[in-house]
Every structure is written in structure tokens, then in C-alpha cells.
Amino acid sequence: MIANDGRRERKKAQTRARIQDAALDLFAGQGYRETTIAQIAARADVATRTVTLHFPAKEDLLFADDPFTPESLAARLRDRQPESTLDAVREWMHATMRELDERDRATGVDPAHLWQRRALRADLLMADDDLRGRARAGYRDLELLIAEAIGEDLGLPTDALLPRLAAVTVVTGLREIYVTREGRARTAASELAGLVDEVLAFAKAGLRTAPA
């Protein structure tokens, strides 16, 4: 029974990934709004109902299963002492990226595929006002977590300007990596990690030079 359950879950995950890949290809080729669920189902070789069972809303094809979750960041920030918040965020990003690469290698998938898909997804989000707005709202929880933790580091309330400004800088910078010239040229976690470090270093410099 346990073995059967494991196979069932792997098959389910493979189907989800195939549907998302099909959706991204179609969105990129003919536009997000012009693509129908029926077209996605045909490209993924599944029934239309299978697509909607996995992704009830069309937007979910772009926003579901993001590995950089507020829950995992919150857990990392709770354990950050004696690290600073920005050091903890850096390690959280690096660890999550390594885990994603290791997962793909274990299943025989080229790790570069994930990072190429994330770059394609970022382009699609930037090109559509509604999708860009939802993406911005989705990053809100990450910003609030980082702002609260930076406030604790500095002895400031969460809604003080400096923690909020630093948090927005970090989250925006990490999001922008995928649509930059540098980000497009890198397709491995080890390469993208250097850009993560640049974002965190920029935010650190801002905190160091801010008025007391």
C-alpha cells in the first residue's frame, strides 16, 4: 500500500509538472490570455478536467507550487540567532536552490530546466498588468516577515521605514534576478546564487549607511 501510494504521488507530481510546462510553452508562444485550458490539456496530453483538478484557476498555472514559501522563510528566521536577518535570508535562498537542484538530479531532470522556466514565468508576469499585480501581492508576506525580523535586529517596530524599505529592496531584488541580463545568462543554482548575494549585499549596504 505504501509503495502504491508513493507511485501515485510521483505520477501526480509528474502530471502537474507536465501541465505547467505545457501551459508555459503556450503562454510564451501565443499569450496568456489567448491560451485556453483545452489547448493546455491537449499539449499536455491529458483531459481538460485533469488540468482544472490540478489547477482550478488559470492563474494557478503560474503561481502554484512556488518553492520559496513564506512558511519556510518564517521557520528559517525563527532560528536565525546569532545571524542577522539578511544573512538568514541569504542562507534560506541558497539552501532552497540547492534542494531544488538535488531534487531534479535525483529524478533525472536537468536542473537548468527549472531556472529556465522560472525566467520564462517572470517574463510572462511582467508582461501582464493583472498577473504582475497578483505577483506583487503574493510577495507581500515575504516582505512583512523580513521587515519584522530586520526591525527586531535594529530594535525598531515592524512598520518603521528602515525595516520596510530594506525588506522591499530584498524581495524586489530577488524577484528581478530572473529578468536581468545577468540572470538570463545563468541556468544553475550555483550561478544564480551569486546574484542572490549581490541583492543581499546591496540591502546590507543600505542598512549600514542609513541614518541612526
Automatic annotation (TrEMBL):
This is TetR family transcriptional regulator. GO terms for molecular function: DNA-binding transcription factor activity; transcription cis-regulatory region binding. Keywords: DNA-binding, Transcription, Transcription regulation. Residues 13-73 form the HTH tetR-type domain. Coiled coil: none annotated. InterPro entries: DNA-bd_HTH_TetR-type_CS (IPR023772), Homeodomain-like_sf (IPR009057), HTH-type_TetR-like_transc_reg (IPR050109), HTH_TetR (IPR001647). Transmembrane segments: none annotated. Residues 36-55 bind DNA. It comes from the Bacteria.
